[in-house]
Amino acid sequence: MRPHTRDGISLTYLFLAGVLMSTAPAFAQQTPEEAAGGGQLVRKEEKPINLCAGCISTLFSEGSKGGITPYGRIELDGIYSSRNTNPLDPSQFNGYATAAGRANNRSSTLNPRYSVFGIRGDRTDGVHSLAGVVEADFYGQTDNAGNLPPRLRLAYLKYSPNNNKTSITIGQDWNPIMGLLPDLIDFSIMGYGGNLWNRLPQVTLRHKFDDHWEGLLTAMRFERGLSQCCGQVQVRPNTVIAGGGPTNVTAFNDPVQVPYFGTRLAYNGTGSLKGTMLAANVAYRYYRSAPVPANPAFQSGKDINSYVIGLEGVHQITPRLKFMGELAWGQALGVEWFRFNQELNLVNGNSVRTLTGWAQLSYAYSRDYTFLAGWGFDNPLNSDLKGSITVQNSNVQYLDNQRTFLTAIHPIWADFYTGFEWTHLWTSWAGPSPNQSYQADQFMLSAWYNF
To answer: Which domains does the chain show, CATH number per domain?
Structure first.
């Protein structure tokens, strides 16, 4: 056995020697890049194969520093409603307030849905900066308290080549148009009550001209377009039966729609006007509404011009007292602005025009207490809603929706807070009867920990 083994080893050596001799010219012609590791040559190929994005990250991160920061909020809201205070999103029970509904049912709940978890990554070399954020909460499409699935809130990257003088945001972020938000505790943040907001997929370019002026350009759109409600199942037909309508009634087969294109120009005060901000906003998009087989008014769809023109303002009246608010006029404003089913007349398919606004005073009484008071309204043009809805489902579109709120916030220790909020809602619903105005109250006692 041993002579046979020695013969095998000898043959192996001869084979390896032949391979090395045949490849010696190639090794002699190696470039410094290949000799250093070989990977650089692959990156220079015009059509790399199976090259993952992370494989080249080290080429661009040299000389920069960064880190990963987890953050979030743990919150529990105790909520009592004097009647139906969330008719515009009934799947959420009374998780937050939207309007005063027709149903006179009192209710209470403990709600942990507004707990948030996020991760932020930052990297900079002193001039360039890059940030990425992914954030989720638990306001999914379910009202099962034992099963609250996470829901994506934010997922964006923000890059600046010049110390944040200019930046571009790509991904899902807060609405950059009419982006000022009130400070109340309620999750709806005055949605349907004067505040136009949402978190949208977008590409937004921001630029600071000087210490006072800054502007932005954006293209943004909700993941889906029109709401599925009240017979207007949004479909794009794939086949048409002779003498009939479209056969495809899949709600997710949404019509192709362009995004909103918008701009914002803001003035920020300095010196004696520090804390003062005034901004003008404009956004517009055109789309063809989807045909709806069940509604003759939508059989062929309609041309929709959707737009918003608005102002935002903040003023520091005294070191402890601050005013902030918005005022806007728009047409066909729907899901992009947290106004589900409010964009079109549900009978004739025409655009609905509306005037919205809100105002808030915040008073920092001491380090232990901050008080808020505010009022907001969403007032569609009544003639645009004529005949839009029936009594049976009148908790869908309103002629006028107003709310006031009073809030008190008290820090307990470190980043642990508690707050109390009273919200009063007054809503006049669209429908054939003139007496569809209702009032409701919601009371919230909340505790949250920011980390």
So the answer is: 73-450 (2.40.160.10)
